[in-house]
């Protein structure tokens, strides 16, 4: 038996045998095909809030690291930061901006029940001013997940991973809402 | 042809030499099946995948995760010609297994998350860059023979 199997018993709270929740957790084939609206179940929302609360002492580090890794692993993303003197991984402007972005993510956690409504002005900013190609939201989300996994290896279980990944995807959708 | 610096080769070699194939293979495949549940479509004959707990305890999945990870050894041994090294495996995944190649990317992302958890702060920015470069070459090679 492996550790995850034993831990599974302790994590019984995370995954009830509630059929309704399982239906919410597993995307319907239709929503997969259309790639829209894989919405969070109430259990997953709670998981996200809980994990972000645990993470809060390190949120600045995670934000700074995540943006550094974005520009390092996906150098094309530096194209959005040509106005900075130094857009290299670990540079002061990159770290500072990573912290800003993470602050926005935390704000979105508080608006998890209505991301589209809550992020309306941020969406307008991204649509009309920043015009960041939405594919980059996915890339940054991946880097955030890697940092969360590095800093909180025990807490960032597969169940937490899927909930946070879905949340970040929903966040990205809300940000791109006003694009066209 | 992909160019590798000495530093990148050293990083990749080091990761593999410290790798617990059973642990990391199992964790990566399980995480992929849980985070991207549609990937379960390829595992119809693997027993109970009902929820995260059963997936994590499934011995067939564990064994297959190990097998997949050992498949990466080929790329490690042939870093200068990963494309041709995986030509046959690419055809297998295309013609016999009928796996959508986007799934290679999903599994690669899960593998990265699992390795990051294992290595913690040792998974530096430089390490992540080299590691993801390696995986993207593998993913590309595996999808190359699809027709």
From TrEMBL, chain A:
Question: What are the start and end residues of every segment in region (Disordered)?
Answer: 1-27
Xref: PANTHER family: HEMOGLOBIN FAMILY MEMBER, HEMOGLOBIN SUBUNIT ZETA
Q: Which InterPro entries match?
A: Globin, Globin-like_sf, Globin/Proto, Hemoglobin_a-typ, Hemoglobin_oxygen_transport, Hemoglobin_pi
Query: Record's GO cellular component, any one?
Result: haptoglobin-hemoglobin complex
In alphabetical order, the GO MF annotations are: haptoglobin binding; heme binding; iron ion binding; organic acid binding; oxygen binding; oxygen carrier activity; peroxidase activity
| Sequence similarity | Belongs to the globin family.
Keywords (A to Z) from UniProt: Acetylation, Heme, Iron, Metal-binding, Oxygen transport, Transport
Listed under GO biological process in this entry are: hydrogen peroxide catabolic process
Q: Which organism is it from?
A: Gadus morhua
Superkingdom of the source species:
Eukaryota
Q: What does this protein do?
A: Involved in oxygen transport from gills to the various peripheral tissues.
Question: Which residues does UniProt assign to the signal peptide?
Answer: none
Can you say what this protein is called?
Hemoglobin alpha chain
UniProt-listed Pfam families: Globin
Q: Can you give the residue ranges of the Globin domain? A: 39-180
Automatic annotation (TrEMBL), chain B:
Could you say which protein family the record assigns here? Answer: Belongs to the globin family.
Q: What is this protein called?
A: Hemoglobin beta 4
* Regions that span the bilayer: none
Q: What does this protein do?
A: Involved in oxygen transport from gills to the various peripheral tissues.
Q: What keywords does the record list, in alphabetical order? A: Heme, Iron, Metal-binding, Oxygen transport, Transport
Q: Which part of the chain is the Globin domain?
A: 3-147
Q: Which GO terms describe its molecular function?
A: haptoglobin binding; heme binding; metal ion binding; organic acid binding; oxygen binding; oxygen carrier activity; peroxidase activity
The record's CDD domains line, in alphabetical order, gives: Hb-beta-like
Look up and give the organism this protein is from.
Answer: Gadus morhua (Atlantic cod)
Q: Which GO terms describe its biological process?
A: hydrogen peroxide catabolic process
One GO cellular component from the entry? haptoglobin-hemoglobin complex
Concerning InterPro entries, the annotation shows: Globin, Globin-like_sf, Globin/Proto, Hemoglobin_b, Hemoglobin_oxygen_transport
Q: Does the keyword Iron apply?
A: yes
Q: Does the keyword Iron apply?
A: yes
Pfam families named in the record: Globin
């Amino acid at each position: 038996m492996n550790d995850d199997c034993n831990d599974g018993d302790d994590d019984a709270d995370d995954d009830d045998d509630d059929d309704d929740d399982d239906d919410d957790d597993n995307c319907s084939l239709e929503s997969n095909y259309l790639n829209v609206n894989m919405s969070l179940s109430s259990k997953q929302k709670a998981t996200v809030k809980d994990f972000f609360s645990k993470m809060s002492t390190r949120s600045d580090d995670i934000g700074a690291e995540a943006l550094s890794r974005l520009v390092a692993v996906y150098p094309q993303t530096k194209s959005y930061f040509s106005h900075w003197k130094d857009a290299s991984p670990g540079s002061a402007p990159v770290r500072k901006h990573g912290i800003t972005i993470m602050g926005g993510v935390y704000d979105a956690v508080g608006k998890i029940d209505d991301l589209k409504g809550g992020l309306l002005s941020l969406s307008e900013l991204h649509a009309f001013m920043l015009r960041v190609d939405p594919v980059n939201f996915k890339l940054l989300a991946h880097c955030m997940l890697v940092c969360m996994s590095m800093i909180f290896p025990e807490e960032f279980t597969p169940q937490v991973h899927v909930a946070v990944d879905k949340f970040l995807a929903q966040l990205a959708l809300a940000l791109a809402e006003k694009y066209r | 042809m992909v160019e590798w610096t000495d530093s990148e080769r050293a990083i990749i070699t080091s990761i593999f030499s410290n790798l617990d194939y059973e642990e990391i293979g199992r964790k990566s495949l399980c995480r992929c099946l849980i985070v991207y549940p549609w990937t379960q479509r390829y595992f119809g004959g693997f027993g109970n995948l009902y929820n995260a707990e059963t997936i994590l305890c499934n011995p067939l999945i564990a064994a297959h995760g190990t097998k997949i990870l050992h498949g990466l050894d080929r790329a490690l041994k042939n870093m200068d010609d990963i494309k041709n090294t995986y030509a046959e495996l690419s055809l297998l995944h295309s013609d016999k297994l009928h796996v959508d190649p986007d799934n290679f990317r999903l599994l690669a992302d899960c593998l990265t998350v699992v390795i990051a958890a294992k290595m913690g702060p040792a998974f530096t920015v430089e390490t992540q860059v080299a590691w993801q470069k390696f995986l993207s070459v593998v993913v590309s090679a595996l999808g190359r023979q699809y027709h």
